[in-house]
Amino acid sequence: MKVIYLLAALLLSAAVVILLGLSPQRITDDIMSLLHRDRSLKYKVLVTQGKIKKSRMQRMIDNITNALAATHSQNKFSLLITAAVVGGVVGVLLGALFNNLLISVVLIAAAFVIPYVYVKLLLSSYKAHIAEELETALSIITTNYISNGDIAYAVRQSIDHINPPVQYAFINFLTRVDMISSNVKLAIEQLKDEIDNEIFHEWCDTLIECQDNSEQKFSLQPLAARLSDIRIVNAELKNMIMQPRKEVFTMIGLVLANYPLIFFLNADWFAVLTETLAGQIVNCVVAVTVIIVIALTYKYTQPIEYKR
After folding, report:
1. Distance between CA atoms of 187 and 194, rounded to whole angstroms?
2. What is the pLDDT of residues 38-70, one digit of tens each?
3. What three-state secondary structure class fits 183?
4. What is the pLDDT of residues 98-127, one digit of tens each?
5. pTM metric for this prediction
6. What is the largest CA-CA distance in the chain?
7. Which of 2, 10, 125, 271 is least surrounded by CB atoms within 10 angstroms?
């Protein structure tokens, strides 16, 4: 009977989605509109002039948008948001089906964490791609800058040899210098905010100092070389990083495999595990532990990044 109720609830939910004309893109747009509100033209002008800095949330959303665009994953993200919403609904239904509100809350939380985890992994991959492009871009620009001493001219000479999305940041830099303001220091400061990379930020800070002291330009080359060092170290550590992930997911698989095992070996034990309060608490503890372990595993097995 419970299975019939579950199917009826799923069919009712599907009917609501069809009647309202909800699509993955519409759901994603509605959710993102809550996080990314439109700004006035005056605000955008002040940001361009460097009088107002973007908030941390705004920069994070911009990074997500750029990462999705660079990896052609806009449609995937829409489907993932929709899957999270559907997962939340299924979590509520399963909680009601087994009379376990605790597991329902855990499943809803897990469903809505999935897009966040996906974006974090996407941003990690995007940052690695940015670092690779920066390695080439900073090397070329630094070499040209050391030879002529004019950063705008150096960027202009190098721009055709730089690949997107790093190229877009330097195109914006040239636009500011040529058309908005001749203040090179301000343009470099705004360039610094466009790319989330610690080595690049330090390179920009040193470049600002070079505008007052030209001898500082010789310290730019070692900064650009750090990107190569980080890439080499990450390549050497890649297998070491993946091994703990394999072990964690193996252990999680063994833990979850106990549920069907108990069901087939002893139906009374399975009933105690799913129908009593103590069993429901145990299930919630297991679910929360699995979610936390997966989150911590990805947190502590990310490629290394340079920190000042």
Report:
1. 11
2. 556 565 555 555 556 666 656 666 666 666 666
3. coil
4. 666 777 777 777 777 777 777 777 777 778
5. 0.64
6. 81
7. 2
Local structure of 276: helix, strand or coil: coil
DSSP characters over 46-70: HHHTTSSPPPHHHHHHHHHHHHHHH
Between helices 184-194 and 166-175, what is the axis angle to 10°? 160
CB 301 within 8 A of CB 239: no
User: In angstroms, rounded to a whole number, what is the distance separating the alpha carbons of residues 160 and 167?
Assistant: 8
207 CB contacts (<8 Å, ≥6 apart)?
145, 151, 188, 220
- Residue 306 burial (CB count, 10 A): 17
- Count CB neighbours of 126 within 10 A: 22
Cis omega (within 30 of 0) on the bond before 244?
A: no
Alpha helices in the chain (DSSP H): 2-20, 24-35, 41-48, 56-70, 74-97, 101-148, 151-158, 166-175, 184-194, 198-210, 220-265, 267-275, 277-300
φ, ψ of residue 63 in degrees (nearest 5): -65, -40
The answer to whether the CB of 184 falls within 8 A of the CB of 151 is yes
Q: How far apart are CA 82 and CA 204, in angstroms?
A: 40
